[in-house]
Design goal:
Helix content is 29%, strand content 21%. It is of the alpha/beta class. The chain is elongated and about 75 Å long. The chain has 7 helices and 10 strands. It has 2 domains: 2-48; 56-261, no CATH class. Strands 1, 2, 3, 4, 5, 6, 7, 8, 9 and 10 form a 10-stranded mixed β-sheet that branches.
């Protein structure tokens, strides 16, 4: 014990005599601890924790081609909704953002435009109010917004009476219809900072098969159609997988995880 005390005293005297070295050591420790904490936070939220969705092991991200290299175009999305048999339901999402006015100062808020049935697909209800109703992604009915829990607390003080009130987004008035739970994050690997959601209307782009604006923004979310006996275990995946809808229809089990099919296996299109 005495040896430990002498060593500590010697170390403190050395650090006091060398302020430059002390500052460098503190900065190195701070950077190392900060980087480690950041990496662990990402790994924990994306890989370790189960997603707060209903049946997360059945969720996939439907991409454009068998190599899963890019989002689909609006026209292809409607084709998949009409023809794909391997999916119980498909919904679309597109990166978006708007300036929220009012309060002490305007604030740029990251968000998503989503199909009206996306929250039903994910199986996550609002904790205040509701999510989008059927038809609210059609022109004339789409001036509604669902708020994230953090935005609700930060800008509106957690006031439950915010539901039914209008908020100005990029100069347009949107009616607040609901607030999502604090644990809700969509999706954990894409647009993770989204704090509000508005309806996505793709009806005006039925013939768009290039999807140039959507190559970085537009990607359907799908729930695989399975029977109870074929349902994968919750431990197999912590985040939605990527899959080509066309490949999934060619082989019903195409979107199972690699772990289900053995080490090194890669199903076609996934």
């Amino acid at each position: 014990m005495e040896t430990l005390i002498r060593d500590v005293r010697y170390g403190v005297r050395t650090l006091v005599r060398e302020p430059g070295f002390t500052l460098l050591a503190v900065l190195a420790l701070a950077l190392g601890i900060g980087a480690t904490t950041a990496v662990f936070t990402v790994v924990d939220s994306v890989l370790l924790r189960p997603l707060s969705y209903k049946d997360p092991e059945r969720l996939v991200v439907a991409l454009r081609d068998p190599t899963a290299s890019g989002p689909v175009s609006p026209a292809d999305y409607f084709d998949y909704r009409r023809d794909a048999r391997s999916f119980e339901r498909l919904s679309a999402a597109q990166a978006w953002g708007a300036t929220l006015a009012g309060g002490e100062r305007p604030e740029r808020i990251a968000g998503l435009k989503v199909s009206a049935d996306l929250f039903d697909l994910l199986g996550v209800p609002a904790i205040v109010g509701r999510t989008f109703a059927r038809g609210e992604d059609e022109p004339g009915y789409d001036q509604v917004v669902v708020l994230g829990h953090g935005l609700w607390q930060r800008r509106f003080g957690g006031n439950r009476s915010i539901v039914g009130r209008t908020v100005p987004l990029d100069g347009q008035q949107y009616v607040v219809v609901g607030v999502m739970p604090a644990s809700f994050q969509f999706a954990p690997f894409w647009q993770t900072r989204a704090e509000m959601w508005v309806p996505l209307n793709l009806e005006t782009r039925l013939d768009d098969r290039e999807g140039r604006r959507e190559r970085r923004e537009h990607a359907p979310r799908a729930r695989i159609r399975t029977s109870e006996g074929d349902r994968p275990s919750n431990r197999h995946r912590r985040q939605p997988r990527a899959c080509s809808p066309a490949a999934a229809d060619r082989e019903p089990a195409a979107c199972r995880s690699r772990r289900d099919r053995g080490p090194g296996a890669r199903p076609p299109g996934c």
